[in-house]
Amino acid sequence: MSGKEYQRGQMANALFTILLFLVFVLCALFSVLIGGKVYENINARAENTYQKDVALSYIANKVRQGDEAGRVSLTEMSGITVLKLEQEIQDSVYVTLIYYQDGRLWELFTDEESGLGVGDGNEILECSPVSMEMDGRLLHIKTEMEGGDRIWLSLRSGGADDE
After folding, report:
1. What DSSP letter does each residue of the chain carry, written as one string?
2. So what's the pLDDT on residue 103?
């Protein structure tokens, strides 16, 4: 084997090694880019699920806590549909108002006579639009987003005040 053939063989081996290394680097780069996109999609889906599930669960739990006969109603204040939960504490009537306004779910707990309204609540959660409707003793709550969820709550059908 002559010196030129040996050099060509060495160059071919070096070129092959460099090309193999470049293929490895490109595969690693594409894997990272694809993995990043998958992560973004999973994160966006989890965020959407969180927003709709937490809003519905929060409202449902509040209704279940305050569900006494005749104490759960929907009303309108300043053009906003408000879920009103009444409770009596030491001969005074207190209300919990839950409503959606400006991309957020709000809550206000106050004495019924206080004069406070929808502008005075505390922000609970940033979420997609939430709407509420009442049909007899059924409360229908739904999130108004793509793939939004809904829940139907049956209000107390019996209790001490009903007997």
Report:
1. --HHHHHHHHHHHHHHHHHHHHHHHHHHHHHHHHHHHHHHHHHHHHHHHHHHHHHHHHHHHHHHHH--TT-EEEEEETTEEEEEEEEEETTEEEEEEEEEETTEEEEEEEETTS---GGG-EEEEE-S-EEEEEETTEEEEEE-STT--EEEEE--S--TTT-
2. 87
Place of tokens 């049956």: 154
Q: What is the CA angle 26-30-35, rounded to 5? A: 150
Q: What is the pTM of this model?
A: 0.68
Q: Quote the CA–CA distance of 75 and 86 in Å, as a whole number.
A: 12
Closest Cα to residue 121, out of 62, 67, 68? Answer: 62
In the chain, the percentage of residues whose pLDDT exceeds 90 is 32
* Residue ranges in the chain whose pLDDT is less than 50: 162-163
Characterize the bridge pairing of strands 80-89 and 92-101.
Answer: antiparallel
